[in-house]
Amino acid sequence: MSRGYDMSRHRSLRRSKTKRIIAGVCGGLSEYLGVNVTIVRVLWVLYSLALGSGIIPYIIAWIVIPTQSEADVPPEGELPNEHHG
What we know:
The chain is mostly helical. It has three helices and no strands. The protein has helices at about 25-35, 35-50, 55-65. Helix 1 (about 25-35) packs across helix 2 (about 35-50).
């Protein structure tokens, strides 16, 4: 059994189609990092309040990060980084 790089574990940052309020940026970050979306949203709000410039990075992320394709959307109730097998 090879211990090389497993392509099935490769993740890419995408804007979420299922965990979106505005554009899915925080939802996509939460899926990429494997953390609860609420944590990412709270941290983003705190960052925005502390530095006063959270909206500009959000808009840039909205433009730069591609949207999740239908094949990337995990089944309901399953985290995207869970592997069964």
